């Protein structure tokens, strides 16, 4: 078990962790998580970690060989298109999270 207040960083494979146990611990506020990979590899849009204050999810950029940049660009374009259409962002960065992200 990780100590309370710990930060888990996963840049390897999503399957190396128990995703349900990790989600429970993060949602309970026991730990924080920085996840470059998840299981499944792109969490469903309604997964609770997307909106959790204790989690930062990146689009699998660690160990980049260049092919991840296409996915990042696709995500940025999709978010921009949603915003431009008035639908708002699917995954907004909230002002109160900026200190955690910096």
Describe the structure.
It is a single chain. By secondary structure, the chain is of the alpha/beta class. The protein has one domain. It has helices at about 20-25, 70-85, 100, and strands at about 5-10, 30-35, 55. A 3-stranded parallel β-sheet has the order 1-2-3, with helices on one face. Helix 1 (about 20-25) links the parallel strand 1 and strand 2. The longest helix is centred in the C-terminal third of the chain and has 17 residues, at about 70-85. The chain is globular. The mean pLDDT is about 85.
Spell out the blueprint of helices and strands.
Blueprint lengths: L6 E4 L8 H9 L4 E4 L19 E3 L10 H17 L13 H4 L1
Q: How much is the average pLDDT?
A: 86
Strands, total number: 3
Give unreliable regions as ranges: none
Strand content: 5-15%
The largest pleated sheet is described as: 3 strands, parallel
* Overall 3D shape: globular
- Count the DSSP helices: 3
The helix fraction, in percent, is 25-40%
Report Rg: 14 Å
> What distance lies between the first and last C-alpha atoms, to the nearest angstrom?
27 Å
Please, how many domains? 1
Order of strands side by side in the largest beta sheet?
Answer: 1-2-3
Short description:
The chain has one domain (7-101). It is built from three helices and three strands. It has helices spanning 19-27, 68-84, 98-101, and strands spanning 7-10, 32-35, 55-57.
């Amino acid at each position: 078990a990780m100590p309370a207040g710990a930060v888990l960083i996963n840049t390897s494979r999503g399957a190396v962790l128990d995703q349900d146990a990790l989600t429970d611990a993060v949602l309970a506020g026991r730990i924080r998580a920085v996840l470059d990979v998840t299981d499944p590899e792109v969490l469903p849009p309604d997964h609770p970690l997307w909106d959790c204050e204790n989690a930062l999810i990146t689009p699998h950029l660690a160990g980049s060989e260049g092919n991840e940049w296409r996915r990042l660009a696709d995500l940025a374009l999709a978010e921009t298109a949603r915003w431009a259409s008035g639908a708002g962002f699917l995954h907004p960065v909230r002002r109160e999270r900026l200190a955690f992200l910096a």
